[in-house]
Structure prediction request, 220 residues.
Amino acid sequence: MHLLIIDDNEELLYALQQLLIDAHYHVDIAKTLGEGDECITQKKYDLILLDWMLPDGSGIDLLIQLRKEKMRTPILLFSSKKEVEDKVEALDGGADDYLEKPFSNIELLARIRALLRRESVQKQTLLEIGNLSIDFSSRSVLIDNTPAKLSAKEFELLELLILNANTVLTRYQISEHLSRDFDHVSASNIVDAHIKNLRKKLNADELIQTVRGVGYMIAQ
Prediction:
């Protein structure tokens, strides 16, 4: 996997580079938007780690430019900005994830694994898990070749769990994803109700595992 880090903080930049090399990734670095853009034009990356504030402009501007050019490479934007509005701006601009500085190495590596796994799964239009066949392009599910009638929210929930397979998602994370409303996140019992309905419709109580006191996950 080839990763690109764009950040002007040299101490953080080289620390991240070594962290990711130790995690067996191939890593390139850039200290400005210009250097980052040049790297992107010369090589195809599996993931880009992009800082918000850079000497020659905003990482958001590069993000928006790349998305306008139809580049689908996952981009994780990180910044010391902590307001909900900043997170919304990053995600609306095309970021696949947003991480606040300072962050732990463990969390960063987990976010990277999740994004790379999601990208890998999304390249598979069809995915089979047990007796389930999921078509991400048509947003449909078959159970033993019989269509399952899932609501839009139920399919989003199933997709979220699959894209984060083997990772426990908290009720808050699930609710945040389903509601898309960062100021009014639904109560956790709403998430439990969606999980209950999804299990019933898929006849797959064992597929979606409950991690008591934390949330839910799909193990593969």
Q: What stands out?
A: Residues 105-122 form the longest helix (18 residues). Confidence is low (pLDDT under 50) at residues 181-186. The domain at 2-121 is CATH 3.40.50.2300 (Rossmann fold). The CA atoms of residues 124 and 136 lie 8 Å apart.
